[in-house]
Specification:
By secondary structure, this protein is α/β, with parallel strands linked by helices. About 40% of the residues lie in helices and about 25% in strands. It is built from 10 helices and 10 strands. A 6-stranded mixed beta sheet has the order 6-7-8-3-9-10, sandwiched between helices. Helix 7 links the parallel strand 7 and strand 8. The longest helix is centred in the middle third of the chain and has 21 residues. The two termini are about 35 Å apart.
Length: about 260
């Protein structure tokens, strides 16, 4: 696939005697919204943790934007071009929304610790640029008016938007979202759907884990379905919904 962004072959992960992932392949094209679904315990979060450096894979090959990719540690993953959010919101609660996004942006800074300490002209100019970009991203996700509000005082849905803005601040090649609709009401989910389509239209590529199958089916270009750590289906939403293995996994088994 010439426009492939992420290419994974045979990803495996064991925890003692438990085979959490077994031979997972995934190929995501640039500009896609790609879904990863499966029943509880299927291995979705384990896969995300392997992809983003929280767990080390036991096997498999990883390629990002045509280059070998080794997810060794979360900060190295961010530098390589993958940004993620978590199922449980992880914000700096006492910092402002703007400051939270600025923290994410510092992955792409050049002046480093010395520049921050000495506060020379180049460092001050870079800090001003980071602040401007952080505000632009808050505006982009729809919470620009709350830039000075502390993160813990934002509504739940806006905290989710803030997490996405902070992830976007790293200029990722791939935005990996872990259950972004978890805990949202119907109105918030509709707003999330519109935001993800906006991010896609901006040229970003998204990998999405989500329990809300209706949201995934109406949003994603392609989907992989895991069950007990193994891929059981891959294709367009229409193809996946008709797959007997998927129907059995969700309706016929005890998960």
């Amino acid at each position: 696939m010439e426009n492939s962004l992420l290419n994974i072959r045979g990803a495996t992960k064991r925890f003692g005697g438990l085979q959490a992932l077994s031979g997972v392949d995934m190929r995501i094209a640039k500009g896609q919204i790609y879904g990863l679904i499966g029943p509880n315990g299927a291995g979705k979060t384990t896969f995300f943790n392997v992809l983003t450096g929280l767990y080390q894979p036991d096997g498999g090959s990883f390629e990002l934007d045509g280059k070998p990719y080794s997810p060794s540690a979360p900060h190295e993953v961010a530098k390589a071009g993958i940004a993620r959010t978590f199922q449980n919101i992880r914000l700096f609660g006492e910092m402002s929304a703007l400051e939270n996004v600025m923290v994410g942006r510092h992955v792409r800074t050049r002046q480093g610790v010395l520049g921050a300490v000495l506060r020379h002209r180049a460092a001050r100019e870079e800090e001003a640029a980071i602040r401007r970009r952080a505000q632009e991203l808050l505006d982009f996700v729809g919470i620009g008016a709350f830039a000075r509000r502390t993160a813990r005082h934002l509504s739940y849905g806006d905290q989710r938007r803030l997490e996405i803005a902070r992830a976007l601040a790293t200029d990722p090649l791939l935005l990996a979202l872990d259950e972004p609709a978890a805990g949202m009401n119907a109105t918030e989910k509709l707003g999330l759907r519109e935001l993800l389509l906006k991010i896609k239209a901006d040229g970003r590529t998204i990998l999405l884990i989500e329990h809300d199958v209706k949201l995934v089916m109406g949003l994603c270009d392609r989907i992989t379905v895991l069950d007990y750590g193994k891929p059981i289906a891959e294709g367009t939403p229409a193809e996946v919904q008709k797959n007997p293995a998927v129907i059995e996994a969700y309706l016929g088994g005890s998960h």
